[in-house]
């Protein structure tokens, strides 16, 4: 009985220590990969849930392909200045993966591309290796859009791990933001049309398989 009581106390203490609406997220991507739109989706989703949030983009150069980092800080008390510790790190850049992993404090959470997982040689952080390339290939048949789809997928993974309302980061919201950016840049590619086409193709294939 004493042991059971102690276990309940431990579980209660752990529950009380849970942090809600306070997180620092950092995303490492190559410059020019289109990740800015995805990062804005995540930041706007957090803001839409009523949590004060700020974003900061850090890039050493405007040259395409060089490392860039985007930091999102959400804090229910409204503290928005940059903080040294990162709670959730999304590592998408092979050029900076070694330094990025080394910069994390023990207990941090890491989302990493599956093909970069072998660079992670730590057992004091929680690691989620995600096959982004395979998932994007399944979701989008237009190879020109797959990099952008990968970015949207990491938004979904992060939102799920953070326990966010997934309706705040729906595919429709992501597609609208990507299409708006394409229209502003004069790019006629429509993510909405491509996504609908891929969904229709999957439905047809499923019916044929069941038929």
Provide a descriptive summary of the structure in words.
By secondary structure, this protein is an alpha/beta fold. The chain has one domain: Pyruvate-ferredoxin oxidoreductase, PFOR, domain III (Pyruvate-ferredoxin Oxidoreductase, domain 3, 3-Layer(aba) Sandwich). The chain has 7 helices and 6 strands, in the order αβαβββαββαααα. The chain has a 6-stranded mixed β-sheet with strand order 2-3-1-4-5-6. Residues 1-16 and 201-211 have low confidence and may be disordered.
Number of domains: 1
Low-pLDDT stretches are 1-16, 201-211
SSE order, one letter for each helix or strand: HEHEEEHEEHHHH
General shape? globular
> Describe the biggest sheet?
6 strands, mixed
Tell me what the CATH architecture is.
Answer: 3-Layer(aba) Sandwich
Question: Which sequence of strands runs across the widest sheet?
Answer: 2-3-1-4-5-6
CATH domain fold name: Pyruvate-ferredoxin Oxidoreductase, domain 3
Strand content: 15-25%
CATH superfamily: Pyruvate-ferredoxin oxidoreductase, PFOR, domain III
**Structure class:** alpha/beta
How helix-rich are the residues, as a percent range? 40-55%
Mean pLDDT: 79
Structural key phrases:
211 residues, alpha/beta, 6-stranded mixed β-sheet
Put the structure in a nutshell.
The protein has 7 helices and 6 strands; from the N terminus they run αβαβββαββαααα.
Topology:
Blueprint: H1 2-16, E1 22-30, H2 35-48, E2 53-59, E3 67-75, E4 88-91, H3 97-102, E5 109-113, E6 126-130, H4 132-139, H5 146-161, H6 171-184, H7 191-210
Parallel strand pairs: 1-4, 4-5, 5-6
Antiparallel strand pairs: 1-3, 2-3
